[in-house]
Design goal:
The protein is α+β, with helices and mostly antiparallel strands and 113 residues long. The chain is 31% helix and 35% strand. Strands 1, 2, 3, 4 and 5 form a 5-stranded antiparallel beta sheet that branches. The N and C termini lie far apart (59 Å).
Length: 113
């Protein structure tokens, strides 16, 4: 094998190694992704089925991260989902279902902590 060919192979190896170091560095810096928005867990117990209104929920938690319809009724979702390559995933979500008068009909709160 010629010296020129060995030099080309070594250059290619150096470029590959540099790219791998760069990718690893980016993963170290940005090794996580967060989706949604945080909300106060401590206020979940303040929700009263059949009593708490949409306005009160908005005052407790702010605007919902997602809004939708379930079985023809308004549903608000508050959620924060943090995924990481180097740590445990942390998730929490609060799904609130309202009746036709805008009063809480039911809710579900889940967290990975």
């Amino acid at each position: 094998m010629s010296l020129f060919r060995l030099s080309l192979q070594f250059s290619a190896f150096k470029r590959l190694l540099s790219a791998l170091i760069l990718v690893f560095g980016v993963l170290q810096i940005n090794g996580c992704a967060t989706i949604g928005q945080d909300f106060p867990n401590s206020r979940v117990s303040d929700i009263k089925i059949g009593q708490t209104t949409q306005q009160q929920v908005r005052e407790m938690f702010g605007l919902p991260w997602r809004m939708g319809i379930e079985d023809g009724r308004n549903t608000w979702t508050y959620g924060r989902y943090r995924y990481s390559l180097f740590a445990d995933t942390e998730t929490k979500d609060l799904v609130i279902r309202f009746d036709n008068q805008g009063v809480v009909r039911s809710y579900t709160f889940n967290t990975s902590r």
